[in-house]
Amino acid sequence: MRQSVNEDITRAEATEGARRTVASANLVSSDVARANHTRLALLTSLVFLTALVLSAPFARTPLAQFPAVVALLQAVQVTADLLLAGLLFAQYYIERSRELATVAAGFLFTALIVLAHTLTFPGVISQTGAFGAGPQSAAWLVVAWRIVLPLTVIVYALRRDGERPADAHLGAARDPILAMSLAAAGGVVVLAFLAILGRRWLPVLMDGDVFVTGTRLAMVVALTITVIALLVLFRRRSHSVLDLLLMVVMFAWFCADILVSISNGRYDLGCLAARIWVVLASMFVLVILLYETAALYARMQAARAEDRERQRHWNEVVAARVETQSAERLMMAAKRAAETANRAKSEFLAAMSHEMRTPLTCVLGMADLLVESELTAEQRRHATALRDASQSLLAVIDDLLAAKIEIQKPSPDRLPTGLASAKDALASGARILVAEDHVMIRNLLEAMLAAAGHEVVLVSNGKEAIAAIQASEFDLVLMDVHMPEMDGIAAAQEIRKLDGRVRNIPIIAVTAYATPQDVERCRAVGMTEHLPKPFNRDDLLRLIAKWFGRQHPRLPPIPDDG
User: Fold this and answer.
1) Residue 389 lies in a domain
2) Which domain CATH number covers 542?
3) Which of 14, 112, 194, 375 could form a disulfide with 379 if both were Cys (CB 3.0 to 4.6 A apart)?
4) Which domain holds residue 509?
5) pTM surpassing 0.85?
6) How far is CA 484 from its chain centroid?
7) Are residues 65 and 203 in the same domain?
8) CA distance 379 to 385
9) Residue 114: inside a domain
10) pLDDT digit string (tens) for 423-436?
11) Spatial distance between the Cα atoms of 485 and 467, rounded to a whole number of angstroms
């Protein structure tokens, strides 16, 4: 009897070990490419090659100026590359493979540099480009755009080691993700300043809308680096699904760079075709990653169903053959295994939701500000289309994750109705402290609040927020939850322990953690309201109107640290 029970235990432990490896073994970054993946990559590359052969004779055909078309295509690419970066960072969050973080940062850099290029492109925002850009600024940003992602792909291919660090717990991935994201954003800011402020000293790449010799030399450099990235990926002994996807992207860029090199100017047929191909390459990779992610969820569900059936059989054997003490021990082990599986799944989905929703906050917020700025009718239509498309993309993401995690959205019935009432309540303006570590979202909040007539003070973590509140008076606090040094949860607890009226200051959580459990956790430590990212300006101003001039209604019990 005991031998039979021991055999059942051994089989159950083996099943649990196999289940725990399902997610890692089937991630596109580690899953070995199969024949169907190879055929799809070859077919897609053949389509790009055929398009190159057919388009090359007409590459120098001049077209009418189409800055609105350029803005629309690049808005799609910004959105796709931001989502690709979020998906790859989410996979790094699980696998902890350093090369994954590198290529994810490459796609994040590409999204941001394309956004900067769109803003400085002549005719999109102004005749010469936004922020005082000159005729050479957009061209030099294109050069950086075409060089950096292939370089990160080369680093990805050379550093591929597949090893996890010794401290590979869930918290260990957040700092590298933050560091990589800040490095990508900082690189774009530096290059944009160089392209705008240093335009008089940079070599000439454009004569009006026509390419010069310097342009062709720069494209040869970009083309060479892209070919090197393609060769380094191809020469690897075995290819993962992600390797094949990156090879397709590099081949599409190779074809696009050739077309640009043989075109005469930015409004030739060759340049338009190259822009379309680059967008299609990003969309191709995004669709495959989303498909593989959905398939991963299906495999996880199937594994859980098998686990439940084996666990039922196991419980029957235990109840029939072993004494009470042994049965309790085995059932506790099964419960812990199930809880571990559910916790790992929930953390993966929460991480994916956070990494997708955070960049979308910037896209939606900046689109709102752009719509409200002084634009021509045509520019306003394009900006509105960008905002509506981003909102539709958010709805798709929420629907994709709705079956796995419940997203908590703002409740309009608890807020003042109508933007007019919000503006009336804030006519005098409020002094607001913003605690947010993400520099782009911090700048977005500052722009929205300043435009509404508020005085804004910015800090980047919980410690700085507590110091600012003790040093000065504020009407309310907008607090991110996930921040370095001290997060928003700990900061809210400390603020509620302070003396005087400051301990009752309204604190609004502004965070991409948007499940009902996250909302309850914020309220449990004394946060007054919860505003999930991405948010729109109206919801933000309604919440501020609701709490401006009021105090937190009651203090929750302060947890005993002792």
Assistant:
1) no
2) 3.40.50.2300
3) 375
4) 412-547
5) no
6) 18
7) yes
8) 10
9) yes
10) 454 557 899 999 99
11) 13
